[in-house]
Amino acid sequence: MKLLVLGARDVHGVLPYGECAAAMRDALVAYASGQVHQPLRTIIRPPAAAGMMALMPAYLAARDDAAAAYGLKAICIFPGNPADGLDSHQGVVLLSSAQSGEPLALLNASAVTEIRTAAVSAVATDLLSRAGAMELAIIGTGVQARSHLLAIAAVRPLDRVRVAGRDPDKARRFAEDMREHTTVPVTACGSAADAVAGAGIVVTATSSAEPVLRKDWLDPGTHINAVGACVPQARELDAETMAAAAVFADSRESVANEAGDYVLAQAEGAIGPDHVRAELGELLTGAAPGRVTDAEITVFESLGLAIEDLVAARLAYRNATERGAGTWVDF
């Protein structure tokens, strides 16, 4: 059999943000419509190890058998990698035939995760932010900060972007670099509070275990994409923000078990067990309401779903096959 191998550069070439965002809408609708079989991710966290591994399998059913597929992401998460110039997420995504089980493609998981995570946040921003929100604040200066700027700019006209991080020099370098990749003015700020002031859209994409965003800094009507805190012990948002916000999820089950923003706020009594208003897929199918008023603060807790990786891999496989990208190997 022939297996298509897509490295990071290949994935970036065949998975543009706007196209991926449209595919993520389809993935979230499929998830909400019961077309997806997907267990909660398995986490392997050895006590003495530097990082951890997550296994994320999924199956997509479809009326068109050619659209059905199996997917598996095996990814290692090493929080210390960015200090060495590496993405914190390292691994592979395997796309397999739903008819025979044969492996079809093996993709660089860092690139898939980078693009599809930001694409889902772009969908959430489109669904939940105020129509007139055109200023974006990003807390964080890493891979996801970059991808979120590009993905949100692909679906929403922006007037300006402000960025802040732990290291002001990194924030300045980030702003300078991004000016070469977007026509939107990008400015580095000395603090997260300065970056967030007046912004209608906020992204938190950090590796911090303690809050980097506080309710006191937010204007009414702000929409937040909370991306970085993907384990129960870490949080980016303070409990006051969570309590004041309408919270939305890619998966209620994932948020209840894995989102430190949610888990820790609940443990402190700031929110109850039913604080998630809806899943994004429910908004897309019309099963649940999104933003109710322009003054409402909304939070999308991004944890990532295996079906998102599967659908992104399927799109990349289709595009690569049509464009002659990647490397075919005998397997």
Word description of this protein:
The strands form two sheets. Strands 1, 2, 3, 4, 5, 6, 7 and 16 form an eight-stranded mixed beta sheet that branches. A hairpin with a 7-residue loop joins strand 3 and strand 4. This protein is α/β, with parallel strands linked by helices and about 325 residues long. About 35% of the residues lie in helices and about 25% in strands. The protein is globular and about 60 Å long. The model has no long low-confidence stretch (mean pLDDT about 95). The protein is built from eleven helices and 16 strands. The chain folds into two domains: about 140 residues, ornithine cyclodeaminase, domain 1 (2-Layer Sandwich); about 170 residues, NAD(P)-binding Rossmann-like Domain (Rossmann fold, 3-Layer(aba) Sandwich), CATH 3.40.50.720.
Which characteristics define this entry?
alpha/beta; 11 helices; Rossmann fold; 8-stranded parallel beta sheet; ornithine cyclodeaminase, domain 1; 331 residues; 8-stranded mixed beta sheet
| Total number of beta strands | 16
- Topology-level CATH name of the largest domain: Rossmann fold
Q: How many separate structural domains?
A: 2
Radius of gyration: 19 Å
The computed structural class is: alpha/beta
Percentage of β-strand residues: 15-25%
Distance between the termini: 6 Å
Strand count, sense and closure of the main sheet? 8 strands, mixed
Mean pLDDT: 95
Write down the CATH class of the largest domain: Alpha Beta
The CATH superfamily name of the largest domain is NAD(P)-binding Rossmann-like Domain
Query: Helix and strand string, N-terminal first?
Result: EHHEEEEEEHEHEHEHEEHEHHEHEHE
Number of helices: 11
Shape: globular
Uncertain regions: pLDDT < 50 for 5+ in a row? none
Query: Could you estimate the helical fraction of the residues in percent?
Result: 25-40%
